[in-house]
Design brief:
By secondary structure, the chain is an alpha+beta fold. The protein has helices at 21-28, 44-63, 77-82, 109-117, 165-185, 266-270, 294-304, 332-347, 362-372, 382-386; strands at 32-36, 39-42, 67-68, 74-76, 92-95, 101-104, 128-137, 152-162, 192-198, 205-212, 218-223, 228-231, 249-264, 274-276, 282-284, 286-292, 306-307, 310-311, 322-326, 352-355, 376-380, 390-394, 400-403. The strands form six sheets. The protein has a five-stranded mixed beta barrel with strand order 9-10-13-11-12. Strand 9 and strand 10 (205-212) form a beta hairpin.
Amino acid sequence: MLYSKLFGKSTKNLPADADSVNAGLLTRAGFIQKQLSGVYNYLPLGLRVLTKIQQIIREEMNAIGGQEIFMPVLSSEDSWIATKRHQMPVLFHLLGQDDIRYVLNPTHEEVVTPLAQKYLFSYRDLPLAVYQIQTKFRNEPRAKSGLLRGREFSMKDLYSFHATESDLDHYYDIVKNAYFKIFQRLGLGDITVLTFATGGEFSRYSHEFQTISDNGEDTIYLCSKCRVAVNKEIIAEQSTCPECGSADLQPVKAIEVGNIFKLRTKFSDAFNLRYLDESGQNQLVEMGCYGIGPSRIMGTLVEVFHDDKGIIWPKSVAPYQVHLIGLDLFDIETKNQADNLYQQLTDQKVEVLYDDRPDSTAGEKFADADLIGIPIRLVVSKRSLEKGGVEIKSRSSTETKIISPDDFRL
């Protein structure tokens, strides 16, 4: 991609209402643009990152038997009345033609349960796991922290259906392990911990996946022995580690990036979702729900991986693998070398952002490269060519060296 043609350029100005690191850096670097409070446009750089995060999640959900579907954003308010959740304060309500009332879905239990009812009849149809990656809406009283707490956001929600509670428990642990694989691939594995939290209306406990960050809005109490945590909301009733029993729980700040619940029969009961067991008896279906937020993860990555110059993307989700900078482009030989290297890398299926702007200074181009945060920077200049090649530098390092273009390997 030629930077001169890229839609959405960097800016030096910090948005006046940027109340978090991720909001400031992602806006300045040209990844997102605020539409209104809690609602963002994703520009080409930002969409590339978001799509890569979603794809990692998709691959791990497919690996545990999840089947991808896509459910509507809009649902009838009647479904929410059936589950007695129609008065939730986070719901956006809409009035349609003929005074029909709708809801913009913040979650999809009210949609997926009646959907499953059309296809699940016998124990032979179970277990089943379906998921989607979709836009959700929540009427947050105060949208804040950039992508961490918005009114419109990307969410992966997986729903599982089981004949027995023990089968639900078994699959619940499978999903738990899959989530750890996701965070490992995202570069967050070492700082993301399983956290016991309140189960709310569903169960005594649920599980959150919390990424440790000084900028987090949650407080969790982390066990120093087994790296399991307890959310501040339940520390009064659970003052020891739920795994090992240790009382050595230390408070740390963290960002919630995923959560999982055992819904049991709450929604199957509301919609009369039943199956015939092996003896021909009608039984309620056991259900689980597993959420993870790609857009929230994107914001979390920036909160965790940045310095005073800009973003430092993990390789797995960086918008491009290489940031190629052409300097001295007024010189025909230098420009040809830079253009040729861009074409060579492109032909090798390397994702390249090529800063081909002829009028920008070296300082401006280097500053933009640091701000955008692509893992590898290559510089073609008269000076580098005189030294025998191109200058290479990792975004996370201060060391530079000259290599031959033919020697470059990711």
